[in-house]
Amino acid sequence: MSALKLAVLDQSVAIAGVPHEASIRATVQFARECEALGYHRFWMAEHHNHDSIAGSCPEILMAAVAATTARIRIGSAGIMLPNYAAYKVAEQFRVLEALAPGRIDLGVGRAPGSDRRTSFALNPNVDQDSEHFPAHLRDLMAWTRCQPLQQGHVFEGLRAFPHGSSAPETWVLGSSDYGAQVAAHFGLPYCFAHFITDGQGVDNVLRLYIDNYQPSERHPLPYASVCVWALAADTEAEALRLFATRERWRMARDRGRLLAMMPPEEALAHPYTEAERGRILQMRMNALIGSAEQVADKLRELARRVNVQEVAILTWTYDQAARRRSYELLAKAFSLRP
Predict the structure, then answer these.
(1) Residue 83 falls within a domain, yes or no?
(2) Where are the beta strands (DSSP E) in 85-161?
(3) N or C: more exposed end of the chain, with fewer CB within 10 A?
(4) Helix/strand/coil for 87
(5) Of 110, 310, 308, 137, nearest to 207 (Cα)?
(6) Nearest 5°: CA angle at 55, between 33 and 161?
């Protein structure tokens, strides 16, 4: 296996007591820091009506990040395609490509990124458009690559501007076998959302992607990634303390409540039930947390097992300095270079 590439997923997480606009600005600043640390790619998320996540428009954040960075690749993780007209998405990403040629990744997904009511507010035809995801993706790729649609298409002759000599790199993002099959069919890179499923299904889904891959002109070989939730600290004990914030959030989410990130001390003081404490213990056993060496070893083993060339890391902490420290430690553990 060639050297493992590391990427970042930033969701502009909501922090208790901190204005949402600060989370958005922190994403732009954090992208610069990740570029300086040597990370290969910086993904930005799309979520709607979500009390834990302020990031709702990755295409706008990508423009801000493009203006303040020079090397790191910049991606949407993702554009939830059924929410939008493929033509408008193509225009947005043609503009982004003009701003940062050769650095734009158009990650698309079929999931709504929200609850059904919010999805309906975004697009009243969302169910129908979800069914036509592969066709919309085909059109999106043609428009972003400045290529003609197939003869007889209802939009034949329609072009997405601005034109240019380069094109965004299209990815399919997902947490089930559906997205993997679509990516394999079109010969596109694929990223599995390990952090959503806690790793369940990752082996089978990525095997399905690789076994069914149809080479494309841009990608003669499959290119796979996994996005994981991981946290490194100077000591394992400190990582466990910081992880308490994540534990509290997960326990609340399982009860249908989406919370902003709270201080570890407040999370640790929460009166969990015996059943919840058992669930937390299981979470700690499966989590990618610990010292930098411990987390790096787990990431390398996961990448080797599922045969991926890249790992994207998502980290939530209440204290943003602790989050930056985690990425700094992992960059050092993997000998990243800017």
Answers:
(1) yes
(2) 104-109
(3) N
(4) helix
(5) 308
(6) 90
Residue 49 and residue 16 in contact, taking contact as beta carbons nearer than 8 Å = no
228 CA to centre of own chain: 9
CATH number at residue 183: 3.20.20.30
pTM: 0.95
In tens, the pLDDT along 44-93 reads 999 999 999 999 999 999 999 999 999 999 999 989 999 999 999 999 99
269 within domain boundaries: no
- Identify the domain containing residue 120 by its residue range: 5-237+292-333
Residue 244 host element (H or E):
helix 236-254
Whether residue 282 lies inside any domain: the answer is no
**Domain count along the chain:** 1
Residue 277 in any domain: the answer is no
Instruction: State which amino acid sits at residue 283.
Output: M
Encode pLDDT of 94-120 as tens digits: 999 999 999 999 999 998 767 888 888
> DSSP readout, 22-64?
HHHHHHHHHHHHHHHHT-SEEEEE--SS-TTB----HHHHHHH
